[in-house]
Fold NUDIX hydrolase.
Amino acid sequence: MADVTVIRAAGGVAWRPAAGGAAGLPAAGGGPVDGRVDLAGGVEVCLVHRPRYGDWSLPKGKLEPGEHPLLAAVREVAEETDVRAVPQVRLPSSTYHSEGRPKVVDYWSMRAVGDGGFLPGTEVDDVRWLPVDAATELVSYPHDAEVLRAFAALPPVTGTVALVRHAHAGSRGTWSGPDTARPLDATGWAQARTLARLVAVLRPVRLLSASARRCVQTLHPLAELLDLPIEVDRTLNEPEPGQQRVEQALAAAARLTELAASGAPAVVCSQGKVIPPALAQLTGRADDFGTDKGGGWLLAFTADGLLPPDRL
C-alpha cells in the first residue's frame, strides 16, 4: 500500500487587548513590538467565517512547498484576516482527517500588532474578534476549541527571545587561524539567510551575538533585512579556559532573562556549548536542548519564568 501523504498546515490564535478594539491596533507595518501590554480588560481572539464550509474557525492554511510552519502560520493569518501578528507561544497541534487524508495543523499564539482593514472574499467573508470563552463556543470544530482552551490557560507573555546557534562554519580541525575567527562557509551563509527570513516574523528590535565571527556573521542577513545593529555580548560566548561550563550557563541564562524582561523582542546568536546548559538552567529540566547549527529556539517568558522552549 502506498504511503498516505500528510497534509501540513499552520495557523494562529491572533489576540489583542479587549479594551483596544480594532482601532487599538496600529497600521500594518507599525513600530516596534513591546511585550508590555495592559491586559486588565482581558483579550479578544480572531475567528474567520468560511462561506465554502459555512463554519467559524481559527485562521489557518496549507504550507507552501518548503515553507516553515511558523512562516506559514503568520502568512495565513495575514491573508485570511489582514491582521499582522507576531508569534509568541507554540500551541497544541491539531490532527484530523481532511479529504480522506490525515492533516496536521501547527498553531501559535500571536499578538496582533497591525490591521490593514479586512475585506470580505470568497475564502473568508467575515472576521470576528471575541472573548476567548465566546470564541470557544462559536468555533465549529472540537479541535479548534481545544486550541483555544490551551491559549486561555497560558499566562501573559512578558517577553520573547529567539535563541539561535551559529550557522555552519566548516571544520575546526581544518581552520588554521584562531577559532574565534573561523567564518561561515557557503552552507552557513545559506543557513543564515534562511534563518533571517524565519526570525524576522518575530519583529525583533535587538540583535545580540557572541563574539565569535561565525556568530556575528550568522546575524548579518537579519541585520541587513531589518536595518538593525549587531551587539556583541561576551556573556554569550563559550566558556573561557579555566571557566566552569555551569558558570557560563548561568551568565547566559541571566542575560536571556534580562533581555526578555525589557519587553522588546530580541534575537540572540550563541554557541553549541552554551545553549543547552543555559536552557537547562532556565527550565530547570535536563531535556535534550541540543541545537543544530543554523537552528534555534523561540523562548517565551512570563512573570514566573520561561515557558517550554519551542524548537525552530
About this structure: Residues 245-261 form the longest helix (17 residues). The CA atoms of residues 2 and 75 lie 32 Å apart. The longest strand covers residues 83-98. DSSP finds eight helices and 14 strands in the chain.
